[in-house]
Structure prediction request, 138 residues.
Amino acid sequence: MPDLDTILVGDARWRDFYGLHSTGWGRDEPGAVSLVAEAFAHPAKVRPDLAQRIVSHALEQGWWARGDVLVDPFFGVGGFGLVCGFNGVGVVGVELEPHFFALAEQNIALHDVVWGRNGHVRPVVLQGDSRELCRLVS
Prediction:
């Protein structure tokens, strides 16, 4: 394991630890999971390769199955929901900030041509406070 100074200055070997930070969100790349340009301003986007690793692991362990529906209480611009959807796992996301809610809707719509094909499940995003989830989904 590298020392703290090496980590802080961004040693490429550490950034690519297990390959989880080797790729970013695709922009006009064929077959890539893409986000609208404005979504890149969100301060806490999940890395697509990390999201894929989480989803794959949960499916392999049997914690989730294709066709299940998860709740993402902090949906942001929808990156994790997109990866889940492309793996056949449904997501109902809740986003508090109206601006990021709108961007999440746009990101989901970017992929409308593939939702429903090959087991892909279109994520659903609701605008509101996730502490009021029961009210939001009723």
